Structure formats: C-alpha cells, structure tokens
Queue: 4 jobs
Job 1
Amino acid sequence: MVVTAVVAMMLWLYSDQVRTTEERARQQAENVHQMTMASITAMMLTGTVSQRAIYLDQVRNTQDINDLRVLRGMPVVALFGAGTGEAPTPAEQRVLDNGTAYFQHDSEQEVLTAILPAKAARNYLGKDCLGCHVNAKEGDVLGVVSMKISLKEATLATQRFVVNLALMIAAGLLVITLAIVTAWTTSSNRTAMMKWANFWQRWRSCNQI
Ligand code: HEC
C-alpha cells in the first residue's frame, strides 16, 4: 500500500518535473527568438544582415542551444532576394506558411525543436518592420527563427532529484519499519510502545491535530 503510494508519487513528481523542464525550454526559446530578432533587426537597420552568421555562431556556442537558424519568408525573398538560400525543413516551411509556432520534444535525444515565426508588425521591440518590408502587411510571416535546445542537463538533474528523493523515502520507511518490528518483537518493549502511544496521543491533543 505504502510502496504503491510512494511509487505513484514518484512517477507523478517525475512527469511534473519533465513538464516543467519543457516549459522552461519553451520560455528559453521565446527569449532566444526575441534576442535574435532584436539583433538581426539592428543589422537590418545598419545594412549588415549579411554578418548575422557571427551572431548566430555565438548563440550556437552557448550551453544548451545546439542549432540556430533564421529563414526568410516569401515577402523578404521577393523584395531582397534569397539571402543565404538555406532550404527550410518541412516543419520550418509549415511555420513559414501558417505562422504558428512549432515545438517538438524528442525524448530520446532529449532535444526540444522550436520554430518561431517573425511576423511583420508596426511596432516589434520598438521597430517598424513595415517601414522597410513595404510589400508585407501586419501579421505576414517575414521569417522564422529555428533552434534546437538540449534538455540533457535539465533531465539529468530531474532524474538525480527524483532518485535521491526515492532513496531518502525508502531509507526512512526502512528505519521506521525496523524500529516498529524491533519494538513489537521484544515483549519487554511493549510497555515502552504503550508509553509512546500515550505520549503521541497527548502530543496530538495538545497540538490539536
Ligand atoms: C531598416 C529597414 C528594415 C527594418 C526596419 C526591418 N527590416 Fe527586415 N530586412 C531588411 C533588409 C534590407 C533585409 C534583407 C537583408 C539581406 O538580404 O541582406 C531584411 C531581412 C529580414 C529577414 C530575413 C533575415 C535573414 O537572416 O534572412 C527577416 C526575417 C526580417 N527582415 C524580419 C523583419 C522584422 C520582423 C522586422 C521588424 C521587427 C524587420 N525585419 C524590420 C530591412 C529591414
């Protein structure tokens, strides 16, 4: 009974932690997306978009970001050309087409793929996209920021936490069981147990629980 309850609790705790890890990674993806668009828009303003590889390389070298790419949508290609001409993956193409963010958690590789749209806006982080992207209207997908975030570290930390907790609970249960068994099998201890029970009753009534 107790063991089943503890195992159920552990499983629940683990799946909850996994969900939190993924939620945090999604939040991180949103941040990387914003930072990338802010940096690249600054480059658009200064006419140095061709140097975006320097920025992308730097972010790619940070701990958990395994891959980071910016792909341009039809309005940008039509106005400014194909750029680096990188071919989008089918998932990236879907986000370019429908403008809906895409997240996929590969639990085997422990990787979260995040593809977020960069939409034309009158005021995005203080910039007017339509001032230059004159062939687009508000809400059009100008491009996508595509990245892969490693969840390995976070998952390892979760596993370590749950295993440690399980060991602690198991050790605690073992000690309690041993104490009870020893107390019951030693008949001379039975009176001591009664005393403890009495004490426990009194403690409970004192503390009103
Ligand atoms: C100052 C003018 C200007 C503004 C403002 C501007 N862009 Fe651009 N944008 C450009 C130019 C020019 C290019 C193409 C550069 C090239 O091909 O080298 C471009 C390219 C892009 C690309 C493709 C980038 C790539 O790496 O291929 C995206 C996506 C984009 N813009 C989105 C936006 C969004 C979103 C905004 C508003 C926050 C915005 N732009 C504001 C001028 C601008």
Job 2
Amino acid sequence: MAAASDIANGPDTSDTDTDTDPDPTARRPGGSDAAEATQLEIFREIQAFHADAAKRRADGTPASSDPELDFPPYRSSVLRHPHRPAVTAPEAFVELAGPVFGDADVSELDADLTHQHIGEPLGERIIVTGRVLDRAGRPVRGQLVEIWQANAAGRYAHRRDRHPAPLDPNFTGAGRCLTDSEGRYRFVTIKPGAYPWRNHRNAWRPAHIHFSFFGTAFTQRLVTQMYFPRDPLFPLDPIYNSITDEDARGRLVAAYDHDRTTAEWALGYNWDVVLDGPAATRLEQDQH
Ligand SMILES: [Fe+2]
C-alpha cells in the first residue's frame, strides 16, 4: 500500500526489475507491447480474464472479491506484483514505531477541500459522505479517513503529473477527517476529472477519489478508490476491472444521494465502507 502522500499518477516508467519475470509480455493474451496496445485489445484482455475467472468459479473455485495482483491488462502489475508471501510484522513493533495521531491533529477545515486556499476551486462542488463499518455492521468510530484526488480538469497537484490540463491554484486535492459516533465521514470537495495514463494507447482513468482508512495500527490501513456512478470508462479501465467479481467492483462505486445534496450548493454522494468480512470494500493493488 502506498502512503497517502505518495500520490503516484500518470505514467510510471520505473519498472525495471525483470529478474523474476523475464518476459511478461509473453503472458499477455494480446501479446502486445504495453505502450502499443489499443484500448480494444485491453478491453478484450479484460473480458478474457473475467471469462476465465467466471469459469473457475463455475468449476467450484471460491470466488475472490479481491483485486488480482498480477492482472496483465494493468501492465505494470505484471512486474510489480508480489512474488513472495507477505511478511507479518511483529504487532508490538508496528504499534510502537507506526505513526500516531490524535483528535487535536485533525481540524474541521481539513475535511473541506474547497476552503484550503484564498479563493474557491473551479469545478462541480460535491459532498462525499458515508459510514465506516466493521464486518458486523458496527460503526468504526474515530477512524482517520484521508482522501486525495485530481482537480476538476483531471490533474493532480503533484510534480509527477504531466497531464497538460490546468492546475487550480485554489485546489490541493487532499483532505482528512475522523469518523463520528456513527462511523460517518464527510468531505466537501470538487468532482475530479478523468485523466489519461500510459497503460496503453488512449488510456483514461475513470473519475475517482483515493481513500485511506487508517485502522488502529499502520498495518491495518486500507487504501482504495471511490468511483462515481455510471462512468462510461468503467468497462475500459484495467484497474477497476482487476477485481473480477462484479459485485465487489460495484462496492467501489458511490451512490448519488439526493438526501445528501444541499440545495443551491452541492450534489451529494454516499459511499459506505466495510473494513473486513464478505462485504468488505476491496483494497486496491496500486495507486493511479
Ligand atoms: Fe488517481
């Protein structure tokens, strides 16, 4: 998992470790070079992968609602996915050495991404809220929730983002809050734009907001992405589709909520998150 401050977006050409995977292209259904693959080829690879997953489920393999860590349509995952089992860190050490925070570290203003500068950012003002629940449906209170996102034009305020879309001097795109007694978080922000990336030719990420749920120790942290309903880019996006289970993918999509919409002010979206159990919101495998 990446840190909230470690926004990795746009092209990533840092994959140079081929020691454990000498010819990843040979395993791609289309066999195309990453930069040369068309959207249609990627779409067909996704469909083929999903069809295989459905067949395995039909043959009795338990359905997984986690993302595939090695998902060839998402090109960099071929080289970047873990090749060895995870190492369990000693709990006491993690709790002593991990970052800590308290109520005093998070102010109410941190949850309003439209009031972090002198002027207001451009774009469609939205309210994003939801409840953080455990597997039994109980609220997770006092949970540190962090978000980061692109601006309305689809550009991050980050040195690695080279998308030739305008930066907004009134929008940084990062916020945080603590869940209340009902496990609810709430942000006021700007609806992010879609942005291009270099997974394949003419690749675009659906609009999304990155979320981090801190947990009670650093190793419990959940990092994932929230999407907006009925995005036309869903079937084309390899990251979204790295979860082969359709229901699990759907749990990454917020619902438009007119009760959360504020008259003359902002549209409302609701997105509940379950931290573990069968209905859990899945971890993403990477940050884009
Ligand atoms: Fe992103």
Job 3
Amino acid sequence: MKVIFSTPPYTSEAETTRIGLCIPLGLGYICAVARERGLDVEVVDATLLKYDVKEAANAILNKNPDFVGLGSYTATISSVYELANELKRNRPDLRIVGGGPHISALPERTLRECPAFDAVIIGEGDYAFSDYCLGKKSNGILYRKDGKIMGDKTPAFVSNLDDLPLPARDLFDIEAYKKCSFPSYVKDPPATNITTSRGCPFRCIYCCKIGSGGTNFRARSAQSVVNEMKVLRDMGFKEIEIVDDNFTFDMNRTLEICKLIKEQNLHLSFSLPNGIRVDRVNESLLREMRRSGFYLLNFGLECADNEVLRRIKKGITVEQVEKSVNLAKKVGFSVGLFIIIGLPSSTPEKEEKTVDFVKRTNPDFIGVAPCPTPYPGSELWTEVNDAFDGNDKWQYFRHSYVDKLLYRPEGLTFEQMKHYHDKLYHNFYKRPIFWLKQFVKHPFWTARRMNILFSIAKARKFL
Ligand code: B12
Ligand code: SF4
C-alpha cells in the first residue's frame, strides 16, 4: 500500500515563514509509524521545494499512491484545499486524508468545505493515520460514507511518547534543511528541531490547543530524549532547538535531561525558540541548563499589564516576568520576549506599559505579533468565528502582517495597534547599541540576524 505525504504547496505570501523552515516532525512521526506497520511511505516536500499546487500534484500523482496525507495550519489551509481538489480531479479513486492543527480544530467544516477529502484525523495522527489506511478502528477519524460524515470525534492522543519511533527524518532532504533552520537564532549551525513533550495544561486564550498536543502534558523520558540528541549529533547537527509547548513544565525531568547531556558529553548548543513559561524556571534549573549547553530562551510576556494577562488567562504576572528575565540574564542566557499587540482589554496606556517594560528589562531580542490572530482551536476563535464564516476567508490567515490585522480590542484602533507595533520594533532594533553589543558577542550570528530582520521589515513594508 503506497502512501505519499505532502507538505503544503508554496505560496509567496507566506515567504517569510520559510525563514524558520524546519523538518515537520509531526509528519516525520506519522511516516515512521506507517513504515513500521508495513506501508510504503514517501514524502513530497512541496514547501521546501517551492512547488506550486500543480507541481505538487504532479509530483504526488507520478508516484501513483493509494493514499495521500496532507497536514494543515490555518495559514496553509487554502493551498491545502487547492492541492486536495487538484489531486481528486486527476485521480477520483485516490484516498485523501487531512490532519494537523487547523483540520483538528474544524474537522467537519473541513469535510464540508473541501469535498476532495475522504477522511480527516482529529488530534495526533501518529497511529490514527495508518489505522485508517489499514482499515483499523480508532478514535479521532472522521470519514465519508454514503454521503454522510461518520466516525469517532474524540481526538487521538498518544499516551506513552517513548513508545513512538524517532521521526523518519531520512524521508526529508536533511542537507537542504541544514541550510534553512531558524537562521535568525542559530548560534552553532547547522541546527535542527526536536520535541521532547507534547501538550500544555495552561489555557491562554490565543493558543490553539486541539491538534497541537492538547491540554494533557505528556513527556518523553530523559534517556529517550538524549538518545535522539545523540542521533542528531551523529547526523552532523551542532545545535538543537527544542520546540515543545512547555519544555520546563516538569522541572525535574528538565534537570535529568541536563544531567544526561553532561554525562554523555554531547557538546551541543540548545535553544528554546518557542518559549518557556516564566513560572516554570528557577535559578538552579537555569544554571544547570546553561552548564549543559542551553544558551537562548524566549519568555512569553504578551503584555506588561496584569489585567490583560488575567483576561487572556496567561496565569502569570508582569512581576514574575521581570524576575525571570533578570534571572535568566544573570545566569548568562540570551533572552527573548514574545509580545502581542492588541490583546483583549488592551488600551494605549497598557501598550505603553509594554514599551516601558521592554526598555526597563532590556532583553536580547523581542518578537512582536501585530495582533492576536484568532486561530481555530483557540478560545479567541470562538469569540470571533462568525467573522470568518466561509472558506474564502482562510486566505487572510496566510500571514499576520500589519496590514491584515484579524483582531482588534475595543480599547484600540487599528492605527494605534500599528503604531505600537512599529514603536516597539523601532525603539528596540534601531538602537546602535543593541547591534554593537550583539556584534561583540556573536559577530557571525548577528550579521545573519540583521539580514533576516531586514527581509522581515521589507516584507512588512517598514522599509
Ligand atoms: C515548530 C513550529 C513552527 C515552525 C515549524 C513548523 C514545522 N514545519 O514543523 C515554524 C517557525 C516554521 C512555524 C511557523 C508557523 N506556525 Co507554528 N508551531 C510550531 C510548534 C511550536 C511545534 C510544531 C511541532 O513540531 N509539533 C510537534 C508535532 C509532533 O506535532 P504536530 O506538528 O502538530 O503534528 C501532529 C498533529 O498535528 C497531526 N498532524 C500533523 N500533520 C499531519 C498530517 C496528516 C496527514 C495527519 C493525518 C495528521 C497530521 O499528527 C502529528 C503527530 O502527532 C507548534 C505548536 C505545537 N505544539 O505543535 C506551532 C503551531 C503549529 N504553529 C502555529 C502557527 C500559528 C504558526 C504560524 C502561522 C505563525 C505565524 N504567524 O507566522 C506559522 C505558519 C507557517 C506556515 N506558513 O506554514 C500554530 C498553528 C495554529 C493553527 N490553527 O494553524 C501552532 C499550533 C501554535 C499554537 N499553539 O497556536 N511553526
Ligand atoms: S501559550 Fe504556551 S503556556 Fe499558554 S496555553 Fe499555549 S503553550 Fe501553554
């Protein structure tokens, strides 16, 4: 039985997202399990190869598969629909299965909007995808039968992550990925991504939970994580980016991972580009992480106002953020702060507090979202989804640039949101002292980051 997985066709609007292109580990896991179960698996990496819809469809059809698996983010769902429709037009008998964070959040709507899909998987597709191909019953699979939508909507989640094989990285063009993994952050290229846990029990209202691990935290053992790190080192990677939702949720497990990294003399650099929570670190943990090669972490501040933090159910205070930023800097980390402009209940005064907070704490970098994008699967989506009725609306989610803001709180105008976004960026990245300090610390890294920031600023029409 032949199965082809494809990443979404390339669209120029999403160009800047290629900056952080990394091996899609979710697909990697599904492929690894399918292969273990005897399926003949291949990948058409349309995003990496910059294939448009027709080129991706031809590449898939040339391999003459029985099943095709397509993953989805809301940012990519419109091109995924186009690809599914193109495939079905050419091969009506081909079984097309969708999955990923967007489809998991809106499974029935996906089947309604895109008749080319034969089935969708809700939640984690590691086992559920091949269950469907092999005709085995499983929860989390919705399919069409006699014009009706059938199946069990309970999301599929893997309970013991240590049971999973390692992602099938060999099905991807590793050498190509070595050249493009997160270059804005990487200190010791080539770098690659890894996941050591899934799920996060917190419920920040802008965060999409179904299809990205859910609310039940599950972790791999420290030994299994370090074994994978060794495999990656032997593949020639020098830096590892841990992209978990909540890497330090179980602080004892993180300490155990650090201990094993040191015992095994891995000599790798580690970063946490996806962010960790300020309430899940302390001085001894941060010191241990530094000693084992971690050098960069991001914290989610979102907005330096406690009322906004309460409204978005972040579960932290501004004071906690300040304390952890200072601690991480003292221990020697490069520290980034994630900020979202225009969160519910925000006002100009509250945005000013964020500007002041950044000045006061002086992080090494900031990431500023120009608005909270209401992704399906998030609580924010349920507040606004009427505004996004109709599948022609998904194109707006392709990028969250300043000229396409998808959410505005009552207390701010769109102009004010753009103003604070630009103000934060300009105040921060236009300071010569910032670049001087960075250049002295990491000359090559800084040159690369300047290049990346320049291209983002150009894409966002700041320059
Ligand atoms: C690393 C990461 C990235 C990386 C790389 C993505 C990649 N190629 O893997 C980069 C930086 C490029 C990125 C970019 C973006 N990301 Co991102 N990212 C993540 C992150 C932190 C981890 C992804 C991961 O490896 N997960 C671990 C694996 C095991 O899980 P998984 O990928 O979800 O796969 C499982 C299931 O989804 C499902 N599945 C996945 N694919 C398929 C395919 C089939 C056929 C089937 C059946 C099932 C299936 O089964 C998999 C195995 O269990 C997630 C958060 C998270 N925890 O997942 C956000 C997340 C996926 N990102 C998100 C967003 C919003 C974005 C951006 C839009 C941000 C932006 N504004 O630019 C862009 C979009 C990029 C684009 N155009 O495609 C959202 C998506 C929400 C949504 N509804 O779409 C998430 C869920 C964060 C969140 N909690 O809100 N991202
Ligand atoms: S934003 Fe982070 S802490 Fe909040 S729910 Fe999402 S993963 Fe958890």
Job 4
Amino acid sequence: MTKEQIKQLAREYGADIVGIASMDRFEGSPVQMDPRFIMPEAKSMIVMGFRVMRGSLRGIEEGTFFSNYSAMGYGALTYTFIPMTVMNLCRDIEDEGYEAIPIGHQSDWRGIDNKGNLREHFSRPVEEGKPQPDIMLHLRICAYLAGLGEIGYSKMLLTPEFGPRLRIGVVLTELELEPDPIYEGPQLCNRCMACVNNCPGHAIHPTKTVKVTLAGHEVEWGELDCDACDVAFRGAEVLENGEVGTYLPGRTDTKPAHYSPFYNKPANLYNSGQAVCGAMGCTRACMIALEGRGVLKNKFKTPFRRKKLWSVDWSDYEPVENANMSLSELGSESSRKMSQAKEKLKETLTLSEKHDLEAD
Ligand code: SF4
Ligand code: SF4
C-alpha cells in the first residue's frame, strides 16, 4: 500500500487532511508520550485532521445553542466519527498483513495529568524501563510531526486549511510509508495575541513561553495555565472573599462567568464535552484573526463575527442546586422524591387505602 492509497482511503473514510510521520521524528519525546513504547515495531504514524464545523461555534457566538460545540463540534467527532475513520483505515492495513493501532480517542487512563506529571497511585510500569501506563500521545505534536501544520502561540495546532478548528485521529502501524515533510509555511501564527487577549481564563501567558525541539525544529508557544483553563472553559468564575457559589459541581466557590448563561455547569456531553467558553480565545479569536488575514483555505461567504459579543449579567446571582443535573438525572431525582413521599404517606393510611395507592 502506498502513501497515496492510504491518504485516499483516509479521506474516503472521513478525514479532511492526512499526513505521515516516520517514527524517528519522535526521538527525544518524553517517555510518557513516546508512541514507540506503544508499538516498538511501528514504522509510520498516519495522522488525520477532522475539521470542527465553523457552524458548531455559531450557537455559542449567538448565545442560544451552547451544546452543539461540545457535542457535534468535538465530542461526537472525538468519540464517534474519528474512531470509525481510524478503525476503517486499520482494517485495510491489517488486511495487507501489517498490524495497525486505531487511536481515535482521548483516554482517561493516561499515566500523566494535564500538566505532564505522573499520576500518583494510578498505575505502575509493568517492568523496568517501560513508562507508567497508559502512554498519552500528544496529538497536536503528532500532527506537527506528520506535516499537517504548525503549533501556534496558543499551543493549538494551526493548519492552512482550518486554522485551529481541528481534531486529530492517529493510526500507528508497522507498514512503512514515505513521511511527509514538516510544515514550513506560509507561516500562520503571526503572534497577533488574539488568543491571549480573548481567553476568558487568562490561561495563555502573554510573555512566558515554552520552547521545544521537534524533529530538529525549534517550536515555541505561550505557557498554558491548565488549572485556569479548566475553570474558565466550563464557564466558571472563581469567587473571592468567602463568597459562596455552586456553579461547578463539587465546589462552593464558583459562579457563572459573564459568558455562561447557565446557573450551574450543564452535564457533560459525549463524555468530555463541556466547553461553555466555546474556545473563545484559542479557537474563535484565532480563527477570526486568521480568516481576517485571508490565510485559511476553507473560506466562507460571510465573516464569523457579525455583531458585538453578548455578556450575561449575573450581578444578582444566588447559588442554586441541582440545575447541573442532566434531564434524565433530574427525572430519576424526582422519581426518587415521589417514591419517598409515597412511602411517608403509606405510614398514615389504612390497609385498604394503601392498596388503592399501590393500584394507582
Ligand atoms: S491568535 Fe494569533 S497569536 Fe494566537 S495562535 Fe492564533 S495567530 Fe497565533
Ligand atoms: S478553552 Fe477557553 S479558557 Fe481554555 S485556553 Fe481556550 S479560550 Fe482559554
């Protein structure tokens, strides 16, 4: 099977863009992210990019349909569409007699946390010299090493087709394929800082940067505050001076931020979808900037931002409970309360009245 055949199949199965990395490009990777520990005999990594629909950001931009970005925008893409594509491609490769691993999800089983630290009391290496399970592939770095685009100041992968509006799936295989060159222009990130200035959690540092060498190329991005992003992307504002708020489950110090219309963070969609901020800085603002400069190939008839951004007034905020339950959880909760009330009522009834109540 040639590289061209693989790319054509990947596109037919649903990928928007495809690149190939050779395994030597991962030399120097942190062991917990080195795919060569997953498949020591791997010869190639096929990296596929799947566009997030610009339309999936429309509902948040308008302030009326937040779930679509978390669900169709990336949840369903990550947990349904990408797995199907990588599985189909792996079937074809294994039919040719080469092992292929479909990697189309983000795993909560990973041995490191969001900051890259080993998770304590989570897992241990199966033998000396091996990493702590599970390995976590850094998908954006994989895409960079397969030539799909560059890493922007926001640490997002920026591609010439879709800018930051992309999710990634990977196939690791023993099949040897000719690698694509690393992307070298035209340069997409011009350090405009729209991502920094529009991130509601101030999670992308304006001056502190991280520098790494990837396959011999120097790459630099702004330092990310994962904790700040974790709070802000779910639409929360942290309260100070002992004020109480129930926006985030399990915390008593958060209220809805001005860019969340929800009294409490709504339930996750497709396991991970809970981006109430609608990637306001790292994706929306960056996409608007890149489209404005005319550097993206996926062009639209109308600009994305068509009016002034809205802002919710929470100055009269009072904590409320339960609103962050899903509708089915709310249904179970109300059934539980009904049963409790029935049981209490039964205590006061005669035998025949109890019988009538059961018959209801
Ligand atoms: S918003 Fe500007 S600085 Fe930030 S990643 Fe995009 S192009 Fe680079
Ligand atoms: S997801 Fe939201 S909070 Fe996190 S970096 Fe992007 S814009 Fe900032």
